[in-house]
């Protein structure tokens, strides 16, 4: 009989953690060694269809109002009951909220091995970090999605041996563009101007979190526009910051050069028409966006945070700049815009690097290895 | 209405605050109600306030947004600020005052600078500092009603409402020879120059951006240059609507509003519109009882017909005003004699009003000056002549004696075949100084671009169009607008002219010349409205306007002081003017009772320089 793994996913809204978790469900299901279950704290979002198509059975939802009330205990007991009833062997959580809730529920259920995840190097507030640390105490292992995240956790006092680095895997098919000859059609579909000599600099990031530092992107864009006439900027992602950021782009004097496309259902096409792809976050774990950019064969300019320097090879696949340094950022983007041969060379090297190091096969293999090792340790006890 | 000043740049240091304070003290007369100063790491802004909208402390400037990350100082009035505020409130912006200034801040935050400015209807000089972007924006309104000067120095930029304030803070260097030459030609310095080297002025309709020590400048508006097809009748009807609209916008204020009523077309129309709109406004007329051109009686009649409150302010044309008032009021030497009249009016009106509606600008866009007719006629001649005629005329013109009617005919043909180049050369001006040996060593070789414009028949074929464009960049922005701003602001009075309304200007600019000069009548459209709404007698009256006889006073009341001033003059010491020659010229002309106006220009320049240097 197959062993059973429960993937605990915060919600199904488009985001790095959520996408990686749903992708892992899919990979595990196809691989077939484990029977895959899923649970969530919020059963809504655009990825729901995708996970639904995997036919994993019921996806229970455990709505939380806070970590401190009676409802938390009630929901955790309900979840523990689900774990026991389905005889789950491994519970794998993927972000801050599911770490805390999932590890607690799995602890209450006694039975399964417990794997938490850490995907960013951002220090949470004191009380939040304290509570997340408690969840790490309950976990058998913690998956860090970059060496930088592992280092961060170690610095914060999490035992080194408990941390396993597994890089995000990128599904090359997801960024396989349609025929490039259809550039005009793609541009029109996105509501972008289809002038032949226009170049596009693209940021794919949610518009919910200030940590993405979209303002640095826009400030840099203003500087680039001063030097390079035929450039336009694409900010792809949804969230409540969109209105404010549109206003900020007006304030930077580039309101007519920046296109906010909202949630992008076809990242592949968007990247295909982009010339340089960027990420300006103040903090990241291991960015899916950077991997997608590289997989799409695009040169990348990103802030040197989290695992960016593990993905990007400086001067070979892209450039790293300090966070909030919009001046260097703009110079690096300009360098790639004005040297298309270099941009193409970087893009090609980036794609090769992704295929070699950040494939879904590598991610799946390491994850299964981790599950087996944890289960083996458990059986020894 | 206010005075603004500031310094921005990487080299903003300990003394910057004091420098801005010194500029503010120089601008104190423009804003007696409040003073404000704000410092950031790379910028210091200062403001003198004349309260017009929301008299409370909520209107204090520099005004800030986002915890001080954005700051603004502003001089002027935004007539559509309530509409803009509504739009911004719909976008979630929250306001704490009833001022137009706060609308500018939120408007910038939402629309960005250029898109904000394009939405503004009003007169303005604005400085905005975005501390997050480390950017300074400066801007002047489309027509250049409100002044704004700036200067670069050691990686910094300074700005102020007047050239004088900047100089006081240590910006600029010595006198500009180009600026002096232009002043001596016209009696004022245009926006293309300034009286000091290193100090410049923003042009009308221009935005300046300063970032990382670099300046970039761009025009955000230009007057339309194409004509609409429209009948005279339709033009009259639409103009009337636009005038009413322009007056209505300008009646809003939280202080008493007055209106100037001369006996002329434009101010009468403004008063008619006020009466029609039911505005609670007093009209003021300057009476010069001992002057043959006194317009009081016409104004009294008009006021009665319109049923508006009316006061006559009597000035004597015999008793010369104090020239020091003129010198103090203007930030650059300014020898427009009618500014003396405007100062006197402002002094009187200020006692009962803080906002004054005037009729300025009507002549310039609806074509009210006699030369407008002459230039249209010249262009007709040029359009009916072959290209060859220009060359022939240039060979022949020297043979014709330039006296009496012939002189007029020669000028007309010069304009036809030489265009704007001939107009520039026809003015008296620098040649008068040369002919009378008035120039000192440093000015003997000077030339100015205005006298060196090319003579072409093509320019003659569109002479009126070219002239209007040229005149707007010289006399209109260099003399007419500064005259009103300088004189009214000297007495903390806000002048608003409905004829400077931008919708009205854009509409009028597109009226074909034959419509604006219908049947060969100057300002035909406005006259027709007056005929229909006030009376035929006023509509048919000739342009008068009181004359300030400064050239007469130079040979009489002012002669002694002129002579004393010239005997120990800065202009002489600095080799700019040979004042002995000036004294000889006055001697020669005094008998006629009328001195050449160039002597008046010299007198004003010397007096202005003495005040600048702290001499009596």
Concise synopsis of the structure shown:
The complex is a heterodimer of chains A (381) and B (616). Chain A has 381 residues and is α/β, with parallel strands linked by helices.
Q: Indicate how many domains the architecture of chain A comprises.
A: 2
Structural class of chain B: alpha+beta
Q: Cα distance, first to last residue of chain B?
A: 30 Å
Strand line-up across the major sheet of chain A: 2-1-3-4-5-6
CATH superfamily of the largest domain in chain A: Glycogen Phosphorylase B
Instruction: Characterize the main sheet of chain A.
Output: 6 strands, parallel
Secondary-structure arrangement, i.e. CATH architecture of the largest domain in chain A: 3-Layer(aba) Sandwich
Strand order, biggest sheet of chain B?
2-3-1-9-8-10
Mind describing the biggest β-sheet of chain B? 6 strands, antiparallel
CATH class category name of the largest domain in chain A: Alpha Beta
What's the name of the CATH homologous superfamily of the largest domain in chain B?
Aminohydrolase, N-terminal nucleophile (Ntn) domain
What low-confidence regions of chain A span 5 or more consecutive residues with pLDDT below 50?
A: none
CATH architecture of the largest domain in chain B: 4-Layer Sandwich
CATH topology description of the largest domain in chain B: Glutamine Phosphoribosylpyrophosphate, subunit 1, domain 1
Sheet/helix structural class of chain A: alpha/beta
Average pLDDT taken over every residue of chain B = 92
Put simply, the count of helices of chain B is 28
Tally the beta strands of chain A: 12
State the oligomer: heterodimer
Which strand-content bin applies to the residues of chain B? 15-25%
Cα-based radius of gyration of chain A, to the nearest Å: 21 Å
């Amino acid at each position: 009989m197959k062993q059973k793994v429960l993937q605990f996913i915060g919600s199904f809204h488009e985001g790095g953690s959520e996408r990686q978790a749903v992708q892992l469900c899919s990979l595990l299901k196809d691989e077939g060694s484990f029977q895959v279950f899923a649970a969530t704290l919020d059963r809504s979002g655009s990825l729901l269809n995708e996970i639904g198509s995997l036919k994993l059975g019921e996806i229970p939802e455990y709505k939380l109002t806070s970590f401190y009330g009676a409802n938390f205990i009630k929901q955790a007991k309900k979840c523990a009951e689900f774990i026991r009833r389905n005889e789950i062997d491994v519970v794998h959580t993927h972000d801050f909220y599911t770490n805390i809730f999932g590890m607690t529920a799995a602890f209450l259920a006694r039975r399964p091995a417990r794997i938490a995840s850490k995907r960013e190097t951002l220090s949470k507030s004191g009380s939040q970090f304290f509570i997340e640390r408690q969840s790490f105490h309950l976990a058998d292992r913690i998956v860090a999605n970059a060496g930088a995240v592992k280092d961060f956790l170690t610095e914060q006092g999490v035992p080194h041996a408990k941390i396993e680095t597994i890089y995000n895997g990128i599904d090359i098919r997801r960024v396989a563009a349609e025929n490039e000859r259809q550039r005009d059609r793609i541009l029109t579909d996105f509501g972008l101007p289809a002038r032949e000599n226009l170049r596009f600099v693209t940021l794919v990031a949610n518009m919910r979190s200030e940590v993405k530092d979209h303002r640095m992107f826009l400030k840099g864009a203003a500087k680039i526009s001063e030097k390079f006439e035929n450039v336009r900027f694409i900010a792809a992602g949804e969230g409540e910051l969109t209105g404010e950021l549109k206003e900020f782009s007006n304030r930077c004097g580039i309101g007519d050069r920046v296109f906010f496309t909202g949630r992008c259902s076809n990242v592949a096409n968007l990247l295909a028409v982009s010339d340089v792809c960027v990420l300006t976050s103040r903090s990241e774990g291991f960015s899916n966006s950077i991997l997608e950019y590289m997989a799409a064969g695009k040169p990348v300019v990103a802030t040197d945070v989290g695992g960016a320097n593990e993905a990007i090879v400086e001067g070979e696949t892209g450039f790293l700049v300090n966070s909030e340094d919009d001046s260097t950022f703009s110079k690096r983007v300009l360098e790639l815009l004005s040297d298309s041969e270099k941009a193409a060379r970087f893009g090609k090297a980036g794609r090769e690097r992704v295929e070699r190091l950040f494939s879904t096969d590598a991610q799946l293999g390491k994850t299964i290895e981790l599950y087996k090792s944890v289960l083996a340790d458990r059986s020894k006890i | 209405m206010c005075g603004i000043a500031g310094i921005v740049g990487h080299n903003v240091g300990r003394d910057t605050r004091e420098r801005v304070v010194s500029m503010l003290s120089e601008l104190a007369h423009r804003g007696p109600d409040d003073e404000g100063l704000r410092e950031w790491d790379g910028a210091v802004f200062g403001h003198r306030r004349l309260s017009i909208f929301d008299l409370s402390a909520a209107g204090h400037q520099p005004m800030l947004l986002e915890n001080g990350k954005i700051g603004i100082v502003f001089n002027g009035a935004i007539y559509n600020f309530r509409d803009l505020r509504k739009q911004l409130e719909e976008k979630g912006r929250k306001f704490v005052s009833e001022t137009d200034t706060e609308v500018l801040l939120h408007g910038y935050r939402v629309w960005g600078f250029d898109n904000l400015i394009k939405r503004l209807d009003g007169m303005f000089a604005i400085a905005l500092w975005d501390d997050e972007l480390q950017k300074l924006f400066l801007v002047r309104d489309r027509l250049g009603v409100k002044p704004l000067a700036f200067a670069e120095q050691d990686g910094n930029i300074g700005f102020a409402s007047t050239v004088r304030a900047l100089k006081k803070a240590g910006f600029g260097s010595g006198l500009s020879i180009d600026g002096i030459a232009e002043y001596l030609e016209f009696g004022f310095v245009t926006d293309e120059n300034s009286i000091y080297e290193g100090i410049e002025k923003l042009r009308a309709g221009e935005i300046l951006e300063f970032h990382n020590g670099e300046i970039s400048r761009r025009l955000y508006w230009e007057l339309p240059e194409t004509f609409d097809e429209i009948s005279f009748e339709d033009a009259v009807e639409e103009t009337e609507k636009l005038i009413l609209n322009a007056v209505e916008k300008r009646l809003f204020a939280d202080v008493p509003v007055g209106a100037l009523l001369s006996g002329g077309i434009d101010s009468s129309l403004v008063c008619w519109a006020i009466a029609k709109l039911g505005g609670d406004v007093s009209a003021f007329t300057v009476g010069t009882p001992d002057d043959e051109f006194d317009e009081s009686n016409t104004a009294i009649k008009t006021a009665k017909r319109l049923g508006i409150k009316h006061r006559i302010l009597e000035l004597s044309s015999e008793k010369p005003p104090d020239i020091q008032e003129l010198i103090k009021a203007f930030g650059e030497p300014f020898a427009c004699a009618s500014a003396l009249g405007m100062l006197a009016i402002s002094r009187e009106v200020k006692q009962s009003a803080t906002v004054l509606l005037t009729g300025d600008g009507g002549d310039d866009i609806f074509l009210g000056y006699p030369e407008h007719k002459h230039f249209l006629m010249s262009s007709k001649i040029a359009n009916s002549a072959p290209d060859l005629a220009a060359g022939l005329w240039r060979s022949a013109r020297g043979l014709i004696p330039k006296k009496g009617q012939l002189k007029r005919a020669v000028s007309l043909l010069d304009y036809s075949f030489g265009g704007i180049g001939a107009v520039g050369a026809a003015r008296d001006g620098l040649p008068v100084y040369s002919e009378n040996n008035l120039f000192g060593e440093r000015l003997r070789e000077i030339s100015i671009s205005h006298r060196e414009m090319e003579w072409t028949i093509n320019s003659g074929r569109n002479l009126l169009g070219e002239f209007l464009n040229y005149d707007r960049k010289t006399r209109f922005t260099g003399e007419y607008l500064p005259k009103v701003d300088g004189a009214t602001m000297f007495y903390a009075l806000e002048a608003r002219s409905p004829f400077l309304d931008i919708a009205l200007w854009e509409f009028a600019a597109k009226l074909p010349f034959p419509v604006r000069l219908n049947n060969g009548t100057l300002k035909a459209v406005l006259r027709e409205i007056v005929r229909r709404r006030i009376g035929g007698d006023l509509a048919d009256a000739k342009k008068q306007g009181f004359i300030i006889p400064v050239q007469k006073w130079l040979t009489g009341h002012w002669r002694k002081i002129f002579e004393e001033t010239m005997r120990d003059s800065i202009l002489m010491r600095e080799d700019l003017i040979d004042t002995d020659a000036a004294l000889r010229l006055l001697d020669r002309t005094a008998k006629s009772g009328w001195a050449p106006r160039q002597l008046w220009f010299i007198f004003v320049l010397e007096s202005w320089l003495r005040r600048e240097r702290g001499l009596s």
